[in-house]
What does this fold into?
Amino acid sequence: MKKIVFATHNQGKVKEIREILKDFDISVVSAEEAGVQEDIVEDGNTFEENALKKAEFVGKIANEWAMADDSGICAEALDGAPGIYSARWAGENAPGHEWVELLLSKLKDMPEGKRGAWFETVAVLRSPTGEHWSFVGKVNGRIAMEPRGIAHPRLPYDVVFIPEGDSRTFAEMSSDEKNALSHRGRAFRQLREFVRNMS
It folds into this structure.
């Protein structure tokens, strides 16, 4: 494995996985850098289905190892919603602050002790022959009563998610602090261990 095409247009994610795989002689390129411009319709019923769909789409076109991830925030009081719809439930092109406002409005009558939630990421690695492996990262926590901190534009829910064992939202932490705890970091580190065992 010399190269992995990451099925994303988010350079922040590409940078994160490059950092995690820096000990290996593997180049990580984005879908665009591999010549794949199309957006994949994420119509799966689970994070894993969506991630696999993206990895397969990019992997087949590039004929390379490919990876993808799908993530979302899941509120216990909402039976796991918004989940796979985290980026779309406020409307297809709604700005991130509207996603957060919708979540807080749905939880407005929930007291502190009933605001349990988790962030989940499933990362999928696909070989050029079509085999694939899934890695699940999960962080339990709760939804704050109001937004706190400044979120990355692509990660709006960070202003309201407080991970277990901390009193700060993800958006109030440094990048390093958040990455050490985050669901995506956990999934990506499992993927790294898999790559290490292959080499």
